[in-house]
C-alpha cells in the first residue's frame, strides 16, 4: 500500500467515527439550511443522493427543489455516475452498494450536485468512500459547463486536512447543521 492509501484509510476511519457520533445527535436544521441554499438555484437541474447508514439526509431539500432532481446510479467501477430523475414517492429499487435508485426515469445532467462524504476540510476537499465516482463525475460535468458542487455533512466531519491527489475535485461550498461555508479559489 502507498502512503496516500494508508493516510486515506486512517482519515476515513476517523471521518466515519465522527459522522456516526454526529448522526446519533440528530440532523438539527441541516435540511432546512440546505433547502434555503438551493432556493437560489431554483430551475437548475439538481443531483442529490439517498442517504445510507449515518449519512446526513438531503431528502427534504431535494423534495422542496423547484426543478428536475436526479439521484446517482453507479454504472460500473471506474466510471462516473449518472443521475436518474427522482421525485417524492417514485418507485425505487436497490442499486449498487445498497443505495436506492428510481426504478425508471429520464437521465438528469445536473448543474448543482449535492455531494455526500465521509469528511471535508477548510480548503473544500472531501473524502469519499474511495471509488472516485464523484471526482470523475464532477470532472466530466465541469468540463461541459460550470457545475456547483455542494458538500452536505455534519460539522463534526470536518478534519484538519483531507489527504488529496491530483484527481480530487474540490467542493464549492459545504452545508452543515451550522450553516453554509464557501471555499475560495
From TrEMBL:
NCBIfam families reported in the protein's UniProt record: MTHFS_bact
Binding sites annotated in the UniProt record for substrate: 50, 55
Protein name according to UniProt: 5-formyltetrahydrofolate cyclo-ligase
Cofactor: Mg(2+)
UniProt GO molecular function: 5-formyltetrahydrofolate cyclo-ligase activity; ATP binding; metal ion binding
InterPro entries according to UniProt: FTHF_cligase, FTHF_cligase-like_sf, NagB/RpiA_transferase-like
SUPFAM superfamilies documented for this protein: NagB/RpiA/CoA transferase-like
Biological process annotations from GO: folic acid-containing compound biosynthetic process; tetrahydrofolate interconversion
Transmembrane recorded as keyword: no
Matching PANTHER family: 5-FORMYLTETRAHYDROFOLATE CYCLO-LIGASE (PTHR23407:SF1), ATPASE INHIBITOR/5-FORMYLTETRAHYDROFOLATE CYCLO-LIGASE (PTHR23407)
EC code: 6.3.3.2
Family membership noted in the UniProt record: Belongs to the 5-formyltetrahydrofolate cyclo-ligase family.
Annotated binding of ATP, by residue: 8-12, 126-134
Catalytic activity: (6S)-5-formyl-5,6,7,8-tetrahydrofolate + ATP = (6R)-5,10-methenyltetrahydrofolate + ADP + phosphate
Gene3D superfamilies assigned to the protein according to its UniProt record, in alphabetical order: NagB/RpiA/CoA transferase-like
Keywords: ATP-binding, Ligase, Magnesium, Metal-binding, Nucleotide-binding
Pfam families membership: 5-FTHF_cyc-lig
Amino acid at each position: 500500500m502507498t502512503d496516500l492509501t494508508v493516510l486515506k484509510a486512517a482519515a476515513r476511519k476517523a471521518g466515519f467515527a465522527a459522522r456516526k457520533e454526529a448522526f446519533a445527535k440528530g440532523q438539527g436544521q441541516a435540511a432546512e439550511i440546505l433547502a434555503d441554499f438551493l432556493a437560489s438555484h431554483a430551475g437548475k437541474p439538481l443531483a442529490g443522493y439517498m442517504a445510507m447508514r449515518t449519512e446526513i439526509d438531503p431528502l427534504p431539500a431535494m423534495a422542496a427543489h423547484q426543478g428536475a432532481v436526479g439521484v446517482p446510479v453507479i454504472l460500473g467501477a471506474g466510471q462516473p455516475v449518472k443521475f436518474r430523475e427522482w421525485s417524492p414517492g417514485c418507485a425505487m429499487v436497490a442499486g449498487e452498494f445498497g443505495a436506492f435508485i428510481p426504478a425508471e426515469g429520464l437521465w438528469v445532467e445536473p448543474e448543482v450536485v449535492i455531494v455526500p462524504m465521509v469528511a471535508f476540510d477548510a480548503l473544500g476537499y472531501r473524502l469519499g468512500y474511495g471509488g472516485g465516482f464523484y471526482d470523475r463525475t464532477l470532472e466530466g460535468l465541469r468540463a461541459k459547463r460550470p457545475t456547483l458542487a455542494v458538500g452536505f455533512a455534519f460539522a463534526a466531519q470536518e478534519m484538519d486536512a483531507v489527504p488529496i491527489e491530483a484527481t480530487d475535485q474540490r467542493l464549492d461550498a459545504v452545508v452543515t447543521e451550522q450553516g453554509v461555508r464557501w471555499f475560495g479559489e
